[in-house]
Each structure stands twice: as C-alpha cells, then as structure tokens.
Amino acid sequence: MDVNCRKMTEARRKDAELLLQSFLRKDPYYLETSEIYGDQGLPALRRALKLFLRRKDLGFVWLAYALGQPVGACVVSYAISTSIGGLVAKLDDVYVTVPLRRQGIATQMLRALIRELKGTGIRRIDTAVISAFATPSAFIRKCTSGSLRKKDSRVCYDN
User: Fold this and answer.
1) CATH of the domain at 85
2) Number of domains in the chain
3) Fewer CB within 10 Å: C terminus or N terminus of the chain?
4) Which tens digits make up the pLDDT trace of 42-96?
5) Which domain holds residue 111?
6) How far apart are the first and last CA of the chain?
7) Which sign does the torsion angle of CA 57, 63, 68, 70 carry?
8) Sheet holding 153-158: strands in order across?
9) Beta-carbon neighbour count of residue 133 at 10 Å?
C-alpha cells in the first residue's frame, strides 16, 4: 500500500487530532501511563497541535495518508544533543489505525521522516520504549538495527 507523508498544516490539523486522539484514548501502553504524563484529554491535544503550528522551531506532527485517508501519525520534537553537539529529533506517539497495522505503514512513515529530516540537518532520531512493557515493537526493532544509546532509548539513524 502506497503511503504519502507530510507535515501537519492548519488544513490537516483535524486529521492529526483524529489520529492522535485515537492513540491517546485507545493505546493500551499509553493508557497505562497516561496519569503519570498528566493527560488532560482533548483540550490539551488541541493546544499542542496549535502550538506545533505556531512554533515550527519546536517540531511538528508527521501524518501518513493512504488512498487519500489519514492512516498514521507521529510527533517529532527537536532537541539539542550534547553528545553529538547538534540537533536531534525525538519521535513520540507513533500511531497507525488499527485495521491497517502490520502492513508497512509505520515503516514507510519512518523512511519518509528520515528523508525529510536529513535535509534539515537533524543528525539523529531518538525513540524511547517504556521498559515496564513488552519488548519494543517489531517497528522499533527494525528502525534501530539493534543500536542502543542508553537504556530504553533507540536511535533510528545517525547522520
């Protein structure tokens, strides 16, 4: 299945809201920790999406579409790494709609994201897996090729 990916724009904010709201309300791993994160529900998600649109220097929401429909999303936030002396991207809230999981959508999203970020000077994508849960998903294992930088963090690419 061909997937087209792009950064969220104001015109696509509702797509991001729909996908990320589904993640925040249905993902069992997130729900286990939502209280720790201080989850404030849909109003907080809406504020965050508006903030990403206003503050592009902080990151963006990456959206995936298949057959013209929104099918996946993830959040990318920028950070400064003292270990490499440059910018890195923190990958969070990776979500693919339930009926389309295990069909390569997340892999295509990540590959497109890597292409997008390499052109901007981002030198690494960091992900994290909560160790209290099962081992990292096949998606995270695939993107990391076993590269482990610190406990529970995975590096998707080093530039």
Assistant:
1) 3.40.630.30
2) 1
3) N
4) 999 999 999 999 999 999 999 999 989 999 999 999 999 898 898 899 998 888 8
5) 4-158
6) 28
7) negative
8) 4-7, 59-66, 69-81, 86-96, 124-128, 153-158, 148-150
9) 12
DSSP SS3 for 46: helix
Handedness of CA 48, 52, 53, 57 (dihedral sign): positive
The token pair at 48 is 């965050």
DSSP string covering 72-90: EEEEEEEEEETTTTEEEEE
Is the Cβ–Cβ distance between 136 and 146 less than 8 Å? no
Q: Of 17, 158, 150, 4, which Cα lies nearest the Cα of 89?
A: 158
Q: Are 72 and 3 in contact (CB under 8 A)?
A: yes
- How far apart CA 108 and CA 32 sit, in angstroms, is 27
Task: Render 109-126 in DSSP notation, one character per residue.
Answer: HHHHHHHHHHTTT--EEE
Confidence of residue 129 (pLDDT cuts 50, 70, 90): low
